[in-house]
Each structure stands twice: as C-alpha cells, then as structure tokens.
Amino acid sequence: MLAVERRVKVLERIAADQAVEVSSLAREFGVSEMTIRRDLRRLDRDGFVRRTYGGATTRVVRSAGAFEVTQNSRMLHHAQEKRRIAMRAAELTGDARVMFIGVGSTVEQFARLAAPRDGLLVITQSLVVASLLGTRRVSVIMAGGTVRQDELSCVGPAAVECVQRYNTDIAVIGAAGVSARRGITDLDDQEAGVIRAALEKTERIIVLADGSKFGDVALSTVVPINRVSSIITDPSADPVEVERIAREGVDMILVEPEVPVPPDTHVSAETGGPAANEEAGQNGAPLAVAT
C-alpha cells in the first residue's frame, strides 16, 4: 500500500471512530508504529487531524467530524493533479466579474487558490466554497435550500430559484464523470439540478476534472459536452475520450506535472534567487537553473 493510500484509510477510520490509536493502526496496516506516527504527523501538519498522545482525533466536534475528515480523505485522492488543475483554472478566471462556483474537491481547491479582489462576485451552492471565500476580499452569494450533509451543498427549489437569478461571466464546476457522449455528469440529481440552473445564464463553462473521471458516466447529466468552453485535466485522462471531446469544440487543457529540481541543483543568481524560482515552478513555468 502506498503511503497516500494508507493516509486515506487512516482518515476514513477517524471519520468513523472520531479517534484512533497508533498501536491499533500499526496492527491493522501491518507497518511499524513509527510509520503510523509519521502519517499522523503529516496529516496533522496539513490540517486534517489533531494528534494526541498515542493517536489522533478529528479537528472538529463530533457532529461535523465525519464530514470534514471524509472531505479531507477525498482531497488526498489525486491531490497533486487537483491542485495543478485548480491553479490553472485560477489563472484563466482572473478577469471574471461574476462567477458561479460549483461543488467538489477540485472546485474547493480552486476556491482556495483563486485570487481575492474587489469587484468579484461569486454565487455558489457550496457551504465549503462560501466559507473559504466569505472572509476574503470577495462578495459571496450563498444559494439557500436544503443542505446535503455529505457534501454541505444546498439543493432543492430554493437553491435552483436563487442561482437562476444571476447572469455570470464564468461558471467553474467539477464532475463525477466526463464523457463525449453523455457530457458532464453528477452522482446526485438534485445537486445536478442546481448546477444546470446556474449554467443557463453563464457565458463560459469551465470544468475541472482529474483524469480518473474521463469515460465515466454518473447518474445525471449536468451539461452536454458541446456547451462546455474548457476542460482542465491532467495527462492521465483517456486520450481517446480527450480527442472525442476536443472534436466537439471544447478547449482541452492538460496540465503537465511539475518537474522536480534535483536537491543539488544551484539556482542561478540571474533568475532572482530561490524564491523567484519556487514561485515560477508553482505556476507551471520552467525553472531557470544553473548546474
């Protein structure tokens, strides 16, 4: 089992039990207690759990703990790809004035990385997105309705009515499935219904989906593929499906993985030093180095 897979399992255990012990996790996964302690230290550093003497607990009260840990567990799946996709989306939406932001782990990454600015209005059905942006230099309209406890998103007639009121420049949405034949699909029909309503009055639809979603078809179609402006994904996406979608006129943006800099590489003084090169690497630009 890879380390990231083991950490996902640890988070799932915490979601179910609210607390775990190092010794029991070590026995369950067949690894040393030192390995589990390193896992918990990493998860604590990343804000997923709170380390305790001999184990770890959730960072929130019991009533909300299962949701938060489950969300963080999902964020670990394809985490690097999702972050790169979200960074690219942030670059493409910098001039938006009114934006609809949907639901999903990659979309939440986008909300974390989007640059706050005066004059930007965001409409969302996601309580997670609203909480990420609500304290920053962004105006946020939260769709009302019935709250889905597993996703913390609002659904139902009130949510549909709210999002239908607004004309938006850009809609940024996630996907459970991406298919040339069935379009962008979602697992929950009520959630899909709210997003469909929001897309009726938008100029541009940007879909964020890691490569694992390509070729999958979930329960409910959110939008046909020929209405989508751009899909941002990673190179693991099925190339046949990517080609089919591109033929429908969709701008397919494949975000390449970052090239790691060897630890003994020396940064050229002409490039502005290590900080400048680190920033360039995070933005996907090539690193200027002298070896």
Short description:
The protein has 291 residues and is α/β, with parallel strands linked by helices.
Name the helix and strand elements from N-terminus to C-terminus, one letter apiece.
HEHHEEHHEHEHEEEHEEEHEEEHEEHE
Inertia-based shape: globular
Instruction: Please state the second-level CATH architecture of the largest domain.
Output: 3-Layer(aba) Sandwich
- Tally of structural domains: 3
| Average pLDDT over all residues | 82
What class, by secondary structure content? alpha/beta
CATH class of the largest domain: Alpha Beta
* Tally of individual helices: 11
Which residue ranges are poorly predicted, with pLDDT under 50 across at least 5 consecutive positions?
A: 60-70, 263-291
CATH topology of the largest domain: Rossmann fold
Neighbour order of strands in the largest sheet: 6-5-4-9-12-14-15
Major sheet size, sense and barrel closure: 7 strands, parallel
Proportion of β residues?
15-25%
Helix content: 40-55%
How would you describe this structure in keywords?
single chain, 291 residues, alpha/beta, Arc Repressor Mutant, subunit A, Rossmann fold, 3 domains, 7-stranded parallel beta sheet, 3-stranded antiparallel beta sheet, 11 helices, 17 strands, globular, disordered C terminus
What does this structure look like?
With about 290 residues, the chain is α/β, with parallel strands linked by helices. It has three domains: about 5-75, Arc Repressor Mutant, subunit A (Orthogonal Bundle); about 80-255, Rossmann fold (3-Layer(aba) Sandwich), CATH 3.40.50; about 260-290, no CATH class. Helix content is about 40%, strand content about 20%. The protein has eleven helices and 17 strands. It has a seven-stranded parallel sheet, with helices on both faces. The chain has a three-stranded antiparallel sheet with strand order 1-3-2. A three-stranded antiparallel sheet has the order 10-11-13. β14, α10 and β15 form a beta-alpha-beta unit. α1 packs antiparallel against α4 (about 60-75) and α2 packs across α3 (about 35-45). The longest helix has 15 residues, at about 5-15. It is globular, with a radius of gyration of 20 Å.
